Amino acid sequence: MAYVYCINSTETLVMGSQLELLEAEALKLSAGDRAALAQLLLSSLDEDTGIEDSWDIETARRIADIENGVVQLIPLSDALAKVRAALK
After folding, report:
1. Are residues 55 and 75 in the same domain?
2. Would you state the pLDDT for residue 17?
3. Predicted structure pTM score
4. Model confidence pLDDT, tens digit, residues 9-62
5. CA 12 – CA 28 distance, rounded (Å)
6. CB 3.0–4.6 Å: which of 15, 72, 81, 85 could bond 21 by disulfide?
């Protein structure tokens, strides 16, 4: 089915499909808005939301551990030095 899309008062574009219409509209968005739309569309394909829910819970737990002093943060340079020393 073809769609008629009015670009302005003097120009009309006939679209071959709804997908082409959506693509044309999406390409008018800013790069940031297109990235956000792409992320939204990609996440809609994820069938296993349990993994994302599990990561949300784990992230919240780790933040709480930091805020409550359960874990001690160390500077990245110190952590890398320990890893390098362990690999020698």
Report:
1. yes
2. 75
3. 0.40
4. 555 555 567 888 889 999 999 999 999 999 888 888 877 767 888 889 999 999
5. 16
6. 15
Our CA angle for 3, 19, 23, nearest 5°, is 105
Q: How far apart are the first and last CA of the chain?
A: 66
* Residues 37 and 53 grouped into a single domain: no
Alpha helix stretches (DSSP H) within the chain: 18-26, 31-45, 49-67, 76-87
Domain count, the chain: 2
| 5 DSSP β-pair partners | 13
Same domain for 79 and 62: yes
Residue 87 has pLDDT above 70, yes or no: yes
- Number of neighbouring beta carbons within 10 Å of residue 56: 10
Please tell me whether residues 36 and 54 are part of one structural domain.
no
Same domain, 58 and 41: no
Expressed as residue numbers, the domain containing 63 is 49-87
